Amino acid sequence: MRQTPSKLYHMGTLTNKRIVLGITGGIAAYKSAELVRRLRDAGADVRVVMTQAATEFITPLTMQAVSGNPVHSHLLDADAESGMSHIELARWADTALVAPASANFIAKMAHGRADDLLSTLCLATEGQVALAPAMNQQMWLNLATQENVGTLKRHGIRIFGPAAGAQACGETGPGRMLEPVEIVSLTTQLFSTGTLAGLRVLVTAGPTWEVIDPVRGITNRSSGRMGYAVAEAAAEAGAKVTLVSGPTALDAPQRVTTIRVSSALEMFDSVHAHIEGVDIFIGVAAVSDYRPASAASQKIKKHADTLTLELVKNPDILKSVAALSPAPFTVGFAAETENLETHAREKLIDKHIDLVAINDVSETDIGFDTEDNRLLLIDRHGKSELPRQHKSQLARALIQYVAERYHAKRAAQDSRPARR
Ligand code: CTP
Fold it and tell me: What is the value of pTM for the model shown?
């Protein structure tokens, strides 16, 4: 059953999110195993970093078993560094979440010290750092701790909790670590881009290659950059993304399932093999409209003065997806040189799609093979312009627009009375 859009927005998930869970020494460390399980249930990929003191409370073996990844605990450990170095780990993380965070760790962070793996990583990461403090209530209320927490908040570090209540030491007051379920909920709120959380997106990208003979073919101009950026932006927004790509020189984007194909027919087959359950289809590929009626098995020799190639039409992948029942929300790209809006509106109607993104390819300095681009978006409700910017930023802006239109369409469908 599909969830209503409003529920999707508030529930939040951690699909595709990479979380380094730091564990410091404290009795609440026993809750970290459940925290890892809940983070993984929410879709996160979790790597655990433990301080020396943490290993006194819970074993690295337990944390390895629940996280499904090796546990890191030493800075400059030759074996660990050859797998994933502390800097790679810092770059890998979207978030470094320290739970429990001891008074000592909070003090270290407030002063920018980096004398073990976890503190070094928290300093080196560009990701969001969040701490869930856990300590005796007097230690929490101590002015030094309160000042340190104030410093960390000013530095943009998020502090989750603590809760008040009965403590392991027998006292009652503030200092208990929040429950794992509350920490997971606060962690999902760190990601503002979860607009496609829980949805499946399929993107086509790149050109196609239509074989004439073993050394020649028909293709379209397309680097694949825009489509790859769109796939990445959708993954960043929380979607499960499949990218069906024609031949490009680009590396497969991270967090995306990439399938490489060559011809339009292969792209058509691959798209339809993966379309089941897809919520949003975005056709960025520059698909060859025609292919040679037959491919020569041997290289064609230049004996004749003229050569005629018979071309047959390729199936329109975008149109075929929009014709499915139920059809995903469909977005097409159009490369136009003139009468942009008129041609785009024709495509919208002819292909029965929800949105067209127009690339003005008459401009020579943007579009093909460039880092920058701009887009004009047209749908049945009107038009919107995404100004010139780097393709990765443009892709994010496009994904935000698509997410809004998708949720608006779903909300309209859900509010329609059911037909008997
Ligand atoms: N498309 C597709 N399958 C095809 C052709 C195009 O999925 N066989 C998709 C592209 O991925 C893109 C959109 O359709 O999203 C482009 O539509 P198309 O009508 O081919 O655009 P142009 O090539 O710009 O159209 P025309 O050649 O008619 O100007």
Answer: 0.64
**Among 65, 169, 323, 408, which one carries the catalytic annotation?**
169
Angstrom distance (rounded) from CA 32 to CA 37: 9
Residue 163: burial class (beta carbons within 10 Å; 0-12, 13-18, 19+): middle
pLDDT along the chain (420 residues), means of 10: 35 78 96 96 94 96 95 79 79 94 97 94 90 96 96 87 86 91 87 80 98 96 93 90 97 90 98 98 98 95 92 98 97 88 91 93 67 88 85 85 93 74
Q: Which residue has the tokens 């698909």?
A: 287
List the domains of the chain with CATH numbers: 5-189 (3.40.50.1950), 200-415 (3.40.50.10300)
Q: What are phi and psi of 273, to 5 degrees?
A: -75, -20
Where do we find the tokens 């785009």?
344
Question: Which atom of ligand 1 lies at the shortest distance from residue 288's CA?
Answer: 8
283 CB near ligand 1 (under 6 Å): yes
